[in-house]
Write the structure tokens for this entry.
Amino acid sequence: MAEFLANYLPAWLAYMVAGAIHVGLIINLVAVGALVFIWLERKISGRIQDRLGPTRVGGKFGWLQTLADGLKLLTKEDLVPGGADKMLFRIAPYVSFCASIAAFLAIPFAGGDYPFIVQHVNTGVFFVLAVLGLEVFGVILAGYASASKWSLFGAMREAAQVVSYEVPLGLCAVVPVMLAGSLDLVVIGDVQQGWFTNWLIFHDPATFLIFWVYFTCATASVNRAPFDLAEAESELVAGFHTEYSGLRWSFFFMAEYGSMFSVSLLASILFLGGWNGPLPITEWLGLTAANGDIAWYIGQVLGVINVIGKAVAGVCVMMWIRWTLPRLRIDQVMATCLKYCTPLAAAFFLGAVAWQWSLPGRTFFGLLESPAELQSVSEGWSDATAAATDEDEPEASEDQTVSSEPSRKVAAAKLTGAAALQIASTNLQGGK
Amino acid sequence: MSGQAFVDQLKQKFGDDIVGANLENVDPWVEVTAQGLLAVCQHLHDEPSLAFDYLNSVTAVDYLETDPKKAAKADFEPHMQVVYHLFSMQHKHSLVLKVIVPRWRDDVPGQLPEVPSVAGIWATADWHERECFDLLGVKFTDHPNLRRILCPEDWVGYPLRKDYEMPTEYHGIRGR
Amino acid sequence: MVIGVARTDFEKLEVYQLAERLADLTWRIALHWDQMAKATLGGQLIRAADSVGANIAEGCGRGSYGDNRRFAKIARGSLYETKHWLRRAYSRDLLDAGQIEQLRSIIDELAPRLNAYIRSIGRAACNPKTDTTDYGPRTTHMSTLVDDPRVIEFDVRTDEMLVNMGPQHPSTHGVLRLVLRTDGEVVSEVTPHLGYLHRCAEKIGENLTPRQWIPYTDRMDYLAGMNMNLGWSLTVEKLLKYEPPEKGRHLRVIIAEMGRIASHLVGMGAYGLDLGSFSPFLYAFREREKILDLFEEVCGARLTYSYLTVGGATADLPRGWLQKCEAFLEQFEPIIAEYHALLTTNSIFIKRTAGIGVMSPEMAINFGTSGPVLRGSGVDHDLRRDGEEIYTAMYDGYAFEVIVEKDGHYPKDHKYPAVPHEAVLGDCWHRFYVRMLEVVQSIDLVRQAIDRYSTAEGGYGEPRKLTEKLPKGEAYLETESPRGQMGFYLVSDGSSIPWRARARSSSFCNLSVTSDLCRGCLIADIPAIVGSLDIVMGEIDR
Amino acid sequence: MGDGIYWPTFFFLLFSALACGFALAVVFSRNVVRMAFYLVMSLASTAGLFFLAGEDFVGAMQLMIYVGGTLVLLIFGVMLTSQKQFVEMKTPAGQWIVGLVTGCALVALLWMAAFETPQWQPISRAEAEAVAVQPTATPIGVALTNGRVDQLDQPDETLRGGMSSYLLPFEIVSVHLLVVLIGAAYLARAKRRSPSAAAPG
Amino acid sequence: MHHFMLANLLTEPVGVAHYMAVGAVLFVCGVLCMALKRNALGVLMGIELVLNGANLNFIAFGSRFLRGEGQGLGLDGPLMALFVIVLAAAEAAVALAIVLNFYNNYDSVDIDRADQLQG
């Protein structure tokens, strides 16, 4: 994006505008996402509870309901409790909101050579998990700063829960990384091209099961459904955001919906093939980079719709669970984490490793067909090295035109990776 | 329960602690003195043939005719009755015990009549006696924590007494 | 029997000597304050500082460990009060650095020693195994527990926190205030505070004729108004020795059992809300609305009916009402399976309720609990079968079984969901299960009552004259209302206005169990336990 | 001197200003919870500096383990021990002045040293832009297990041969963490007061 | 200090010296925090700051952008930083356990109270 603009604008302005566009897109995505989710939650809970949900607010299906909520929240008075630690009380919602927005920096919406991503961090998965962990600070500060016993209870419960659920979450996220061979979300997404059989969830039975453990831990780490202890209204009045009202309260809610959206986006990319639909429509319609930029662009947009569709499906499942199951007690939540989720995640992780060790690169559905085509993915590194090494020298001497930058970078990336793997294999043979 | 035979049996066992009985009423009752109450209740609770293990309710009734015209015709002296309704889960029969106490101890207004607390025998009596103390001003001795249960802690007076006047104001709220 | 003699020689206690030094030091400091400071802050500071030593001394002099510990705790209280006044003095620049240093060294040494002293009272001299000291009247539920030395101290010495749950707490079913003494998440002591909804209905009962008091009975258990009216009407009829006609009795059975279904639906929905699942509440109210529509056709009101009155009912059932009632039962029965799936057999619900708040049958009887709370603990007692003659007369000839776990199993007249193995008899799950089964039982009763009502002839029970003279005497009657045995006690002196009208509330006794059930449970269990008792504050506070 | 702003420097100044600012705030603030919050902000901006220096694996690691784990631990510690103090734990003014003076002297000394040594001076802009963007996770992963990717083009033979991977320290750290886990849990365990130990009055 | 001209700071790339300067400030803040704070947890936070300053230097020396290709520490810098981060977590755990014990016995976390060893 930034390079594309650099042709028209001076360099530093190009970066500025590109950055602004990226941030704008992300903020819109989350804001509109939150709007849609609030409306969706009311509709789904209505349907589950055999009632209609909002119908008359603005138009046919009451879709303006969220706007009405937003206006109400804006006009509500933001009061700060007397004994509160003023500064921390005000900052807490913004810390938690920024943490949940920052997760969208590294999440790609379409893959290929030019991925639709704000910042192509090649340790994408790791970055998203790390940032999700930061949201707990906002909650702790809110709990401490509002100086009321109930919010302190809520904050401590949430902190304990989120911190302890990061362990199984990390374990579950490592399996797709291992299968795709890289922490980079774009690579993980691209590995799952083609039919839905290539999706990592169907890669092998262990990964299939670990997806469900991932989904439970994800629901717990964003504090939803049976694990929403922090704002258990029947016990703690409203948990850590008891004292908040108006805009600050809505920031907390935007943060919650944002992290729910980012966790389901991660689920869809890691396990459900991200921008590769169940059927390889983009190949059939010829919308690939081969025949021109326009077709490539439409293909990418289809990919984006695919990712967001799966993420919204994930969020709907979370809402569905929330309106049916009662709430767990804090020690039961901890017990499920330590006694069930972590051992299960570890066991399935070993299962996936065993599968990968015995049948390298073979998927469950791919057991029948010859493994050639899949083999290329793992070997891709080696032949790329051969190609890269000879054609790398001449290319390096060309002028440093900006346009050729990305392809050279990708080749270089392959080079070091490949070299590394080659050395690894040589050492291994040497070592054995 | 089985009427006069039961009353005589009690009289024979507890002597002058049983002061009377009324068997004609729809719910016949037995009157007991305040001193003998604990012994009688313990006997009723432990005796296998009676086994009154369920205390339905402890309440008090204030007998005082406030308006002078009717006072002359009233056929009773001003007094207070503490009424115990008992029930047996095994034999499915019920009994009413009454303790007649003066409205004020030694007839000095302000000193509450004293009745021993049966909270030791039936745990449910704890709250019922607190309600009697709160609304009718009957002091139950040896009660675990005898304090008001329905009215605020610092409320003055005992509302269900016949001669009770609503206070003119309470914490700035106009009463009358 | 070893009488634990408290140490009377308190002067030798270091704790006491430190308190003395603190008191004298504050006196010397406050001496040179200006007139204004001395009058305001000085007086308070010296009083607080002196009371630390005074309380320690008095504690020793009291002779019993319980009092000694209590006074030592008061001493700790006044120590903190002294700290407060010193902070005020400090912020008002009445203390200079040297004085602060002195004060702080004494206080920082006194605080841990006082805590250690409190913990040591009653332990140094006695060993629990051989200790038979009598700590005052040994009542079964004495609230001041002796500190058992084997109590495992939690890893970090968190000090106790007094937390107020209510009166405007979302999960306490109305204006109930529970004061919890918590240590982290574990609740060590629960004391309910009542009286927020006290309208003194009994005093008004002494100025109205019985029929005029019917609306007041509606507002006691406002979720089952019909059953309350029935209870008061039967009590008055017992005193009048009046028998309503046979058709009136069957009408009362229909109305009472429909009221029970409506009330249990609210109980089930609210309990789901307490445990966090929102949907069952809406399903329950959808069905309850249909019953309220039926009641509205009968007596025009949806919540406070005043329909059943002394002598029978204010009006007969409208035409076609019975068919509508049958249609409702028809479509309602299969829906109950949904409620079971949503809550009763839901694994998270079982986790939250099974084995929580277990109450033994003896304790249930001892605390005078009644209704589903009593039967949930396995006590086979239901007034519709074991009650007084005038009440059971309404139900004679009806085939129904009392819902209680007798010799290991619940009645098998319908296909009920199985009892999970985690559920212990007398826990929250069983109380909830009994309520759900009673709804099915009530459906059978209503069906039988409809057949009997349509075949019976005669009047529906004309209500008695409004100002009818009551015979001299008294009557007490309990009826099986949805939440337990609702008793009414009527004393009359021969005039048409009762001398005394008392209402014995079932939830009042059921609630008295909370402080024993909730000792040592987690905060999240309290709504589960209080919800399982299904209390209504209107009935408790009257 | 190059054309226009060199962005990495701009972001470097931004993040370092944030880091130093919050670090100073940690030193000067009195309320413990505020100190913890400023520390979180300071460490997060240091993670930003790590990203800038091209080490995004270490940056993400810092965010996750250091800020997400260690500081949450610290905040739990603050919550468990925070108590109303009779007199604020204020260090007397004298110590503050001495501390600040020595601190500034130390900073000046270090800055002088940093900017004087020639090897540490910045490289030219063209050279900086020529550096290729490489994946950072794979080399670290391989270096931790069995190969030193970055020393491939080491000129002299002996050095390249002698480079051993970080496998041994990696194992030692994992065992070390296990030992610390058990040790810390044991140290802070529930004190089980045996009946005999009666605390003296 | 000839090279340190603010005017062209923004246009010139940043060198290792600048990273070390920031590392130094963090280090000194950490030391000050450890020295001046009377709250045990304040000291712990000081230690975190000191470790962070050291980490910054490791990364600076290991980064390719600052020293150009193949001069600095190469991969050793980030790896040392990783080990520092992991061990800091372990150290914080043990330190917190000690502080909690201290709190249990002294009712407060004011380290001036730890004067048992004095004569």
Notes: The two ends of chain D are 79 Å apart (CA to CA). Residues 134-188 of chain D form one domain.
